[in-house]
């Protein structure tokens, strides 16, 4: 294919050179160098023969006494002028060569566009699984790839259509017969194109202002993000400013920056003063205010929770009936993972209106108290029960030596006494493991001391007086008997 194109181009250039040389010859030719061939049928008389031959150049000039009389000429003649033929042929062939060159350039441009198109498609398919950006959290990689491919196809179609339009207009403009069609094709795009260029030129000052405003806002956002990251990672320390506040504060300032950017951009937007634009703005504002009450409430609650710092990521907390570690905090919700690997999502507005227990903070700052309650009958001395419970708390892992375990008798019921064993730990994440080991040790210790663990329901049944069932009455017997 490449060899054919090169050969065609070479032949076209040779033809163009030949016709250019012919044009040079035609332009420099003189009348003496032009042979005019005349085919004539002439009737003569003896008196004008000499004059005719002299005029034809084949005989001497006539004598002074010779008289030339008018003659009657009936002829069919064809005058072939080399200059005229050369010019007509050159113009026609020149137009054909230019048309062929335009066609060749058009085909080459389309070929280049197709090659670039397929190279870009191959690059997209190679890079689609290697890219990792924030857009993947919004649109999956498959949809992104399809969108890019569709966008590139549209660009390719527009470029090829533009090239074909220019080719058709140029090709038709070469020949006088089709110049009118070429002019009409040109007028189809001239009006919209001129209007577009004038509109862009008139809007250019506003466009420059928008670019400057966006550039300043972008620079400020990057600076704020860098500062927030340094504070959050501890590289920059601000007195009385918790590092956990850095990213939320950045988000707040970013929202304020975006709001001010929009305020400055609004007067420079196209048609910003039109009634339609203002109506759409009012409609969106009303829609946002009516439909985002819960959303705004969660956002505000999220920021309040952030600055209150009731818990951090990784803390073990209890919220309502849910106990688990905090795995995510954002402006809308908080997520915790329970011991059963259940992820519970709690809106921030709910957290603001409910009680939250932070086991991690309690364990680190004060020592978290874990307790187990047992029920023992009154026939077992309390000293023996206390000793068995203290024995169960000895040599347990993750238990603090100071303060030491303590036993509290929390109640005296009708048929049993309530005892509570309290131990302390500084590792809240081991709370469930500690409870499991503690209950096992209590059971082993009571079995060793031969102390029976009472169940309140069973004890209440045992202590009630025995009542025999009612006798079955025979027919006719009185119930009083």
UniProtKB/TrEMBL annotation:
Residues 1-22 form the signal peptide. It comes from the Bacteria. InterPro entries: LSM_dom_sf (IPR010920), MS_channel_C (IPR049278), MSC_TM_helix (IPR008910), MscS_archaea/bacteria_type (IPR045275), MscS_beta-dom_sf (IPR023408), MscS_channel_2nd (IPR006685), MscS_channel_C_sf (IPR011066). The keyword Transmembrane helix applies. It holds the Pfam family MS_channel_1st_1. It is found in: Cell membrane. It is a multi-pass membrane protein. Residues 373-453 form the Mechanosensitive ion channel MscS C-terminal domain. Keywords: Cell membrane, Membrane, Signal, Transmembrane, Transmembrane helix. Its main location: membrane. Residues 295-360 form the Mechanosensitive ion channel MscS domain. The chain crosses the membrane at residues 96-118, 154-175, 195-220, 245-266, 286-309. GO terms for cellular component: plasma membrane. One of its GO terms (molecular function) is mechanosensitive monoatomic ion channel activity. Belongs to the MscS (TC 1.A.23) family. This is Mechano-sensitive ion channel.
């Amino acid at each position: 294919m490449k060899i054919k194109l090169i050969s065609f181009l070479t032949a076209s250039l040779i033809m163009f050179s030949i016709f250019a040389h012919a044009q040079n010859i035609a332009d420099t030719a003189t009348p003496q160098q032009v042979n005019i061939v005349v085919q004539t049928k002439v009737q003569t008389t003896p008196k004008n023969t000499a004059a005719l031959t002299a005029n034809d150049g084949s005989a001497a000039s006539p004598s002074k006494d010779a008289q030339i009389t008018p003659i009657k000429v009936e002829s069919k003649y064809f005058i072939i002028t080399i200059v005229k033929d050369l010019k007509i042929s050159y113009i026609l062939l020149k137009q054909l060569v230019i048309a062929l060159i335009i066609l060749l350039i058009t085909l080459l441009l389309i070929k280049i566009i197709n090659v670039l198109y397929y190279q870009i498609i191959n690059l997209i398919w190679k890079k689609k699984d290697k890219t990792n950006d924030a857009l993947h959290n919004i649109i999956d990689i498959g949809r992104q790839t399809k969108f890019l491919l569709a966008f590139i196809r549209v660009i390719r179609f527009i470029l090829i259509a533009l090239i074909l339009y220019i080719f058709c207009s140029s090709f038709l403009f070469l020949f006088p017969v089709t110049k009118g069609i070429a002019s009409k094709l040109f007028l189809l795009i001239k009006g919209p194109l001129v209007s577009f260029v004038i509109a862009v030129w008139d809007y250019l000052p506003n466009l420059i202002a928008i670019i400057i405003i966006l550039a300043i806002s972008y620079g400020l956002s990057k600076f704020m993000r860098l500062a927030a990251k340094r504070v959050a990672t501890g590289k920059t320390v601000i007195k009385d400013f918790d590092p956990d506040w850095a990213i939320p504060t950045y988000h707040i300032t970013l929202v304020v920056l975006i709001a001010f950017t929009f305020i400055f951009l609004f007067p420079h937007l196209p048609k910003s003063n039109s009634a339609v634009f203002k109506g759409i703005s009012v409609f969106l504002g009303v829609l946002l205010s009516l439909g985002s009450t819960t959303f705004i409430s969660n956002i505000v609650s999220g920021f309040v929770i952030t600055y209150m710092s009731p818990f951090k990521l990784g803390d073990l907390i209890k919220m309502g009936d849910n106990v688990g570690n905090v795995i995510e905090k954002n402006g809308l919700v908080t997520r915790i993972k329970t011991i059963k690997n259940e992820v519970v999502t709690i809106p921030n507005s709910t957290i603001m209106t409910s009680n939250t227990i932070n086991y991690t903070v309690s364990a680190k700052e004060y020592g978290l108290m874990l307790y187990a309650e047992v029920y023992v009958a009154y026939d077992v001395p309390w000293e023996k029960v206390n000793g068995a419970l203290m024995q169960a708390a000895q040599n347990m892992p993750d238990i603090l030596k100071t303060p030491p375990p303590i036993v509290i008798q929390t109640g005296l019921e009708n048929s049993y006494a309530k005892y509570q064993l309290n131990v302390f730990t500084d590792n809240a994440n081991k709370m469930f493991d500690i409870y499991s080991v503690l209950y096992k040790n209590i059971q082993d210790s009571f079995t060793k001391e031969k102390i029976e663990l009472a169940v309140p329901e069973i004890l209440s049944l045992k202590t009630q007086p025995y009542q025999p069932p009612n006798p079955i009455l025979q027919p006719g017997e009185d119930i009083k008997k």
